[in-house]
């Protein structure tokens, strides 16, 4: 029996972090176990570089974990830990620049959400609001939804499959959650970056650069109702960038972490 794949992801009540479990399970074909950073054999979805650096700078036993699609959260200068980990893919070129790694392929694993979760539900004529998990109790969002029945508030603290399916069923998504934007991109739902306020913006620009998306500044929360009324149904202009990153994610997922194929087992 193949043991569970040991994966670390941030333990916040946030669908974007929990999504790592589902996507890695799908791509690897193995059961996944959430573990602490020092026990992990894989870091994937999330801005986890500061966690990796903290736990893997001093390391002297065996091979360290694999990095697949993770990125930086804030300006980051530490590089000593790179000797103790194996980088297969980074989220975006800003992460690569901080780490001074000369790589040309990137991808956030959240772009595989549709493959992991399944086809989108039927689209509804509603506009989703996806706050950052730290904003979920902000009364401004509840008031907007009460004032306009065309708006739908999605609670990112919920089950990741439910959250992703709600995003996929929307006509348009305004998201302060990075993975709200990424899941919308995965399902081909037009989306707009919403102000994450106190949260750092580097990770958003890192992702945008990976797919060639023009994402200079977010819509302010006070401007959301007017922006929602002005939304027009337009195709996503950076589809090629999304597909390029998807291909890179699948190509660079570590083969040694995939489930053994039946013919490999029979010859073992």
Q: Tell me the overall shape.
A: globular
**Radius of gyration in whole Å, from Cα?**
19 Å
Strand order of the largest sheet: 2-1-3-4-5
Nearest-integer average pLDDT: 93
Distance between the termini: 13 Å
Q: Can you count the helices?
A: 11
Quick one: how many beta strands?
A: 9
Parts with pLDDT < 50 across at least 5 consecutive residues: 264-268
Beta-strand residue percentage = 5-15%
Order of helices and strands: EHEEHEEHHEHEHEHEHHHH
Instruction: Report the sheet with the most strands, covering strand number, pairing sense and barrel closure.
Output: 5 strands, parallel
What oligomerization state is this entry in? single chain
Helix content: 25-40%
Total domain count: 2
Helix/strand-derived category reads alpha/beta
Tell me about this structure.
The chain has helices at residues 15-28, 49-56, 93-99, 113-117, 139-147, 160-168, 178-186, 202-211, 224-230, 239-252, 262-266, and strands at residues 5-8, 32-34, 42-43, 66-70, 86-90, 127-130, 151-153, 172-175, 191-193. The chain has 268 residues and is an alpha/beta fold. It has two domains: 5-113 and 245-266; 121-238, Toll/interleukin-1 receptor homology (TIR) domain (Rossmann fold), CATH 3.40.50. The strands form two sheets. Strands 2-1-3-4-5 form a five-stranded parallel β-sheet. Strands 7-6-8-9 form a four-stranded parallel β-sheet, with helices on both faces. Residues 264-268 have low confidence and may be disordered.
In a few lines, what is going on in this structure?
It is built from eleven helices and nine strands. By secondary structure, it is α/β, with parallel strands linked by helices. Strands 2-1-3-4-5 form a five-stranded parallel sheet. Strands 7-6-8-9 form a four-stranded parallel sheet, with helices on both faces.
């Amino acid at each position: 029996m193949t043991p569970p794949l040991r994966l670390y992801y941030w333990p916040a009540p946030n669908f974007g972090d929990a999504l790592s479990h589902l996507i890695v399970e799908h791509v690897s074909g193995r059961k996944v176990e959430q573990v602490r950073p020092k026990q992990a054999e894989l870091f994937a979805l999330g801005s986890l570089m500061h966690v990796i650096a903290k736990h893997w700078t001093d390391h002297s036993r065996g091979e360290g974990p694999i990095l697949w699609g993770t990125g930086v959260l804030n300006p980051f200068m530490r590089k000593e830990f790179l000797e103790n980990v194996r980088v297969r893919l980074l989220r975006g070129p800003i992460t690569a620049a901080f780490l001074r790694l000369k790589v040309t392929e990137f991808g956030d694993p959240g772009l595989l959400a549709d493959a992991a979760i399944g086809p989108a539900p039927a689209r509804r004529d509603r506009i989703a609001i996806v706050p950052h998990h730290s904003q979920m109790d902000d009364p401004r969002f509840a008031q907007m939804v009460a004032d306009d029945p065309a708006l739908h508030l999605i609670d990112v603290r919920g089950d990741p499959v439910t959250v992703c399916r709600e995003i996929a069923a929307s006509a348009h998504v305004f998201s302060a959650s990075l993975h709200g934007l990424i899941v919308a991109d995965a399902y081909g739902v037009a989306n707009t970056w919403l102000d994450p306020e106190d949260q750092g913006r580097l990770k958003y620009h890192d992702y945008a650069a990976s797919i060639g998306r023009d994402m200079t500044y977010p819509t302010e929360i006070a401007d959301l109702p007017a922006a929602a009324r002005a939304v027009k149904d337009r195709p996503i202009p950076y589809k090629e960038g999304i597909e390029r990153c998807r291909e890179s994610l699948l190509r660079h997922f570590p083969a040694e972490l995939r489930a053994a194929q039946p013919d490999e087992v029979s010859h073992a």
